[in-house]
Amino acid sequence: MSVEEQLIKTRRSLHQIPEVAGEEVKTREFIRSFIFQETNNIQIDYDNEFGIIAKYHYHRKAPTIAFRAEMDGLPLQDKKECSYQSVHKGNNHACGHDAHMAIILHLLNHVDQSDYSINILFIFQSSEEVFAGAKRLIQPLLSYSIDYLFALHVTPNLYARYFSLSSDVMLAANYSLELTLKLTSGHVAGKADLMALLASIYRFQEGYCNESQSVKVTKIETNGYYNINPSTVKLFVNFRGKNKDINHEGFAAFLEHIISKHDRVISVEHRTVSDYPSLKNDERLNQIASEIFKKKFGAEFVLPCPFIMSSDDFAFYSNELTNVKCCYYFIGSYMGDDIDVHTERFDIDENCLYYGYESFKAIVEVLSKSSERHLQSRIEN
Fold first, then answer.
1. CA 109 to centroid of chain Cα atoms
2. Which of these, 217, 311, 303, lies nearest to 257 by C-alpha position?
3. Edge-to-edge strands of the sheet including 213-222?
4. Is there a contact between 331 and 154 (Cβ–Cβ < 8 Å)?
5. Residue 186 — pLDDT band, cuts 50, 70, 90?
6. Torsion angle, CA of 151/156/160/163, rounded to 10 degrees?
7. Taking all residues of the chain, what is their mean pLDDT, rounded to a whole number?
């Protein structure tokens, strides 16, 4: 079986068992079994509900590079009518994490059969979509003295073989909250009006959103009835911006608007669900990766990435892992104009698996060669 066929087989197997953030039990079992069955020289160093870290050890003085994949899916129905449809009803790998895991698993298999002059970590991380699973791995990763850390993400906005990355801010900071509003209530014949509150929130949203910041209400729950105005409203709210300060200031303005504009709001309580920083690549590592991809795939297939409102908790690694140079990039997976991430219809052009795998492999090969000189220098000194 060719590596392309193996990648597709592994991705489809993972696609069938999506699990939401913090519940990736079968996914971890799959990864663990793959490593035990398919490799001889890869050691699992860390294994719990927060993730799995596997290691290829070359020399304690050699540099260490790491690759991260996310394990969680989303609470969306999978409507694919195909042989690899999700068997977990109501869950779906609707963001490509199945593809990311498959790419790293086969990179791991390739490394196991090779002889690279560098230490390599393979990180399978829980809870990227919510709850900032990356933060749970910061402490264990500090002990590995990582020099370079990479991650990729499929994008339906580019065709397979295309790559996109930048040393400017690429992804937005993400601030997700749950708000509970206590309201004056009573009979629907009274003056209380939930829709007036929601309309005002929408007007705030329209005035707030622009190319560098946004706010969206994604879920509304009330205890109202057919003839009773609600006394409680629960909102799921998400702020996006070029940095965390923008999001925090936006939330403060949002709270002030709700309280000052509506005398029927008695109180507001909030709980932070996630607070991700914006994502920015290390400038030099971004340049190195770009040059590797241009040489490997052709300069016309490597594009600058604009700032987009997506977010990724990979940003925690570059913010909190001291002295680790980080690089995150997109690989094209376009299948059609009606295919988008975080939707039931999401799928990928599986040719992207090969290009993602080859991009990681090219990074390992280039950095391993430079590591030989680096290691000799370390030993001599």
1. 23
2. 217
3. 213-222, 232-241, 173-183, 265-276
4. yes
5. confident
6. -40
7. 94
Q: How many CB atoms lie within 10 A of CB 327?
A: 24
Torsion over CA: 287, 289, 295, 297 (sign)? negative
Do the Cβ atoms of 232 and 222 come closer than 8 Å?
yes
What's the chain's length in residues?
A: 381
> 8: helix, coil or strand?
helix
319: its two tokens:
């913010």
Give the three-class secondary structure for 152.
strand
Query: Does pLDDT of 379 surpass 90?
Result: no
Residues 6+ apart with CB under 8 A from 217: 201, 205, 235, 236, 237
Number of H helices, E strands in the chain: 9, 16
Tens digits of residue pLDDT in 96-154: 999 999 999 999 999 999 999 999 999 999 999 999 999 999 999 999 999 999 999 99
Amino acid at 153: H
Task: Name which of 379, 21, 320 is nearest 149 in CA terms.
Answer: 320
Contact 170, 329 (CB under 8 A): no
Q: By C-alpha distance, which of 18, 277, 54, 281 is closest to 173?
A: 277
The answer, yes or no, to whether residue 240 has pLDDT greater than 80, is yes
Separation between Cα atoms, residue 145 and residue 60, nearest integer Å? 10
Output the CA torsion sign for 49, 51, 52, 55: negative
Instruction: Say what percent of the chain tops pLDDT 70.
Output: 97
Residue 221 — very low, low, confident or very high, per pLDDT cuts 50/70/90? Answer: very high
Least confident span in 44-48, 174-178, 290-294, 368-372? 368-372
Q: 312: which residues sit within 8 A by CB, 6+ positions away?
A: 128, 151, 153, 171, 276, 279, 328
Of 176, 171, 182, 320, nearest to 248 by C-alpha is 176
CB atoms near residue 373 (< 10 Å) = 10
pLDDT band at 376 (very low <50, low <70, confident <90, very high): low
DSSP per-residue string spanning 216-269: EEEEEEE--BTTEE-SEEEEEEEEEESSHHHHHHHHHHHHHHHHHH-TTEEEEE
